[in-house]
Amino acid sequence: MTDQEPRRTLKTMVAYGGTYTFDGKTVTHHLDIAWNQVWTGTDLVRNVKFDGRKAIFTTNPQPRSRDGKVAISVLTWEKLE
Predict the structure, then answer these.
(1) Could you tell me if 70 and 63 are in contact, meaning their C-beta atoms sit under 8 angstroms apart?
(2) What is the DSSP letter of 38?
(3) What is the CA radius of gyration of the chain?
């Protein structure tokens, strides 16, 4: 890796771990550990929609940390055979 690649990765990554609860529409992640230490011990709520083999997780509109612009983050997981 070049010196710039790790910096670019850190600007775009999100990583956390812990337990979760699911009510059929939203999943709440109860964070035990997070790459951003400010998140450790907090809850992150994501809206969940299912589309066939896909689970689509979205945030509510919120300001982005890097520029303050309001955005919605989307993460799609697809089950493979």
Answers:
(1) yes
(2) G
(3) 15
CB of 30 closer than 8 Å to CB of 17:
no
Q: What is the pLDDT of residue 40?
A: 96
Euclidean distance between CA atoms 18 and 2, whole angstroms? 32
Residues 48 and 22: their CA atoms lie apart, in Å, by 9
* Dist. CA 21–CA 74, nearest whole Å: 19
Coil, strand or helix: which one is 80?
A: coil
Looking at the DSSP bridge assignments, the partners of residue 63 are: 70
H-type alpha helices, the chain: 4-12
Over residues 38-62, the pLDDT tens digits come to: 999 999 999 999 999 999 999 999 9
pLDDT at position 10, please?
Answer: 76
CA distance 76 to 31: 20
